[in-house]
Here is the input.
Amino acid sequence: MRLVLLGPPGSGKGTQAARLKDYLQVPHISTGDLLRAEVAAGSPLGLQAKEVMARGELVSDDILLGMLEDRFSRDDTRAGFILDGYPRNLVQAAALGQLLAKLGQKFDFAVQLDVPTDLLVERIAGRAKAEGRADDNPESVRKRLQVYTDQTAPVIDFYRQQGELTVVDGVGSLDEVFTRITEALAPAKEVG
Here is the structure.
C-alpha cells in the first residue's frame, strides 16, 4: 500500500507512521530523514542538497523528487510505503503522481489526521516544555499551523478531488487513532 500521511505539526503523523509501518509491513519514508541521510552519505543528490542548505536556501523540489525516485526504486518499497512530509504543495503532489506513474506504482491513499488547532497548540506546547524548547510558544505554533494550513489545504483538496483522501479523527488515545486509520485502510489492504 502506498500512502501519504497529511497532518499539521502535533497531529501524531510520526507516531502513527511508525505503527503503520509495522502493521502494513512497508517502510516509513520521512523526507526530512531522507534528506539528512543522503547528505550524510555524500550521495550526488545529497551533495547538491548540502550546497543549497549551506547557502541558507530550501532544497528544491527537483532534488527531493530525485531522492524519492531513488528511494522508491529500492526493493523494500515494492509492496508500498508511508510517505510523511511530502507533498507539501500542489506542485509536489502532481510531481509525486507523475513519479509513481513513471515507476509503474499505484498510489492508494492520502490520510489526513484531523485535529483541532487548540489541541495542536496544546500538544506542541507540552512537547516543547518536556524537551526544554522555548521556540514553541503558543503564538509561534499558531503561525506555523497557519502556514501549514495555507500550503496544505490545496493538497488536501487535490487528493479529495482524485477520490484518494481519507480523513481520520486524530483526537483520542494513540490506540484509538491507530484503529481509526487501520479501519479506514482495511478495504484497500484486503484488495492489495
